[in-house]
Amino acid sequence: MNAGRMWVRSNAAYTRRFVLGGSVALAAERAVSPAMSAEAGWPAHINAAKPRVFVTTDAGGSDKDDMQSLIHLLLYADDLNIVGLGSAAARLGFGRISAIHSVITAYEKDYSTLLTHSASYPTPAYLRSIVRAGHPAPQPEAGVSKPTNSSRAIIAAARAASPTRPLWVLTWGSHGDLAQAVHDEPGIVPNIRLISSGRDGQDPNAHRYLLTMWKGRLWWINGAGSGRGIYAPPSGHNNPDRAWPRPNARGHGALGRLFMANSTDLYGAFDGWRRTNGLKMGDTFSVLYLIDPGRNFDDPTARGWGGSYVADSPLYWIDSHDPALAYGGYRGAKTVADHKDIFLADFAARFDRAQTVKPAHTNPTLRG
């Protein structure tokens, strides 16, 4: 393989390397010291070197792109410590835990094949055990109402985290369950890092509550336009990538089949007479932020797969207002799109894992 580019992240216990050569040639390695293995109170596969992630999603609601994002997430589950998957409300429709479970079911069918590439993939049983139902509708005017199984799970996961080993909460729909969690247990705020998709989070009241009560105290990337760089053209039209799914997902295991099924008629009845097809997964920029091998997690202003953001106030970052970095009306979209060839090649290699068993005589790695 001819190496084209290399990114390296390292500290005393953790090294990750990603090499891109040609179009989709990928390889990597990670070394984790025994001291950094499973900590008390966490499942055995949880490793302190990997980001701890809780995702709330409106998958099963108004459009299919969250299903695509969940498939992407699980193909990278060996690079993350996924500690919670919660259903969430949305403006149009609402998330359903059945949708989350359907992705886990597809993952289970591919699990034995994925394990030949990485021993760090969590078991399907573990993933099912962390699925929780959240609010089925946006929050009322106060921005909070009553706890849900999802908000309680966020509290539990955040209590087990710390400011130096935080819980990353990725909201792909309503912020309602996170708002409820920090309202009910304010002491968890220093342990949370939030990356939200959509400036109002599809729940204006919960969003307003977080801004009013927690802006400047909660570490928060509030993205809206940047994530559109995954699929939107420079014109800024809402045009999912029609060409990508067929050569890269079709025939690639059960997860590939599910991705294809969720790449047609993306918006259903909400799309009127049109049928919008293709790769979208506009919320995935939050995952890209965490799986980028060269990312400095502490600096949202740095360039990287998940975008580059500007500080609006202490601990609070938003999409860049620089017109040169916008795609049409989508502010900051270019900061993600600039890395599109790389992270989509990496995603394609992940689908290859679901398709092909790695020979037993080679050692599993975490990327490639």
TrEMBL record:
- Name any one Pfam family assigned in the record: Sde182_NH-like
InterPro entries xrefs: Ribo_hydro-like, Sde182_NH-like
Which organism is this protein's natural source? Muricoccus vinaceus
Q: Which Gene3D superfamilies match?
A: Ribonucleoside hydrolase-like (3.90.245.10)
Q: What is the lineage of its organism?
A: Bacteria, Pseudomonadati, Pseudomonadota, Alphaproteobacteria, Acetobacterales
What SUPFAM superfamilies would the database entry show?
Answer: Nucleoside hydrolase
What region holds the Cellulose-binding Sde182 nucleoside hydrolase-like domain? 52-309
Q: Identify this protein by name.
A: Nucleoside hydrolase-like domain-containing protein
